[in-house]
TrEMBL record:
Organism: Dicaeum eximium
GO molecular function (one): cysteine-type deubiquitinase activity
InterPro entries: Papain-like_cys_pep_sf (IPR038765), Peptidase_C19 (IPR050164), Peptidase_C19_UCH (IPR001394), USP (IPR028889), USP_CS (IPR018200)
Protein name: UBP16 hydrolase
Keywords from the named record: Hydrolase
């Protein structure tokens, strides 16, 4: 945050202790939220430096804009009641797009705290965990040109806590276990009960988590 440079790059939980495994959702989040240095052609146009260099009275057309090295980091400033993670399952291969088929590991319960700002707006003071429980997965089989979408969905009891989060933004639960329920695999009109290990071994394309803490 520009308002508070002291906490601009601070997170709710220590991200340096993560050491995430490659080909995992934690690694994807770690890379997406890493601290980047902007130098050379990526330098930032600095209004303060420009003002200092030219003085406020100069005509804008005569200003010599000043660019400076900077740091940039994308962090979560508001923890959502529903977390949707969309994996980029394609890459450029010459002039063609190619599907990325490798398995990306994802957990039943994920802690977003290492990816949240220290002053995350809807996390109670003193909390160092922001936990989410998996309840849905979209899987794509096939290639870039043709394929089939199926889904894994967890059937669970009505979650009043989630309703409170959505309606009032309140969070008072302290579950660290996944929300209990039965998983189903849905392919067009075919619905089949499946084990959680089957879900976690799927080639996830989109992941849906609900906030539990």
């Amino acid at each position: 945050s520009m308002d508070d440079p002291e906490t601009a790059f601070c997170t709710l939980a220590n991200r340096e202790e993560l050491n995430p495994e490659e080909d995992s959702i934690h690694y994807c989040l770690y890379q997406f939220t890493r601290n980047e240095t902007l130098t050379e052609t990526n330098k930032l146009l600095c209004d303060v430096c420009t003002q200092r260099h030219c003085g406020p009275k100069n005509n804008i057309s005569e200003k010599k804009y000043v660019y400076t090295n900077a740091k940039k980091q994308m962090l979560i400033s508001l923890a959502p009641p529903i977390l949707t993670l969309h994996l980029k399952r394609f890459q450029q291969a010459g002039f063609n797009l190619q599907k990325v088929n490798r398995h990306i590991k994802f957990p039943e319960v994920i802690d977003l705290a290492p990816f949240c700002t220290a002053k995350c707006k809807n996390v109670a003071e003193g909390n160092t965990k922001v936990l989410y429980s998996l309840y849905g997965v979209v899987e794509h089989s096939g290639t870039m040109r043709s394929g089939h979408y199926t889904a894994y969905v967890k059937m669970r009891a009505m979650n009043n806590h989630l309703s409170d989060l959505v309606l009032q933004g309140q969070s008072q639960a302290s579950e660290t276990e996944p929300v209990k329920g039965q998983w189903f695999h849905i392919s067009d009109t075919h619905v089949q009960p499946v084990s959680v290990s089957r879900v976690l071994s799927s080639q996830a394309y989109i992941l849906f988590y609900e906030r539990v803490l």
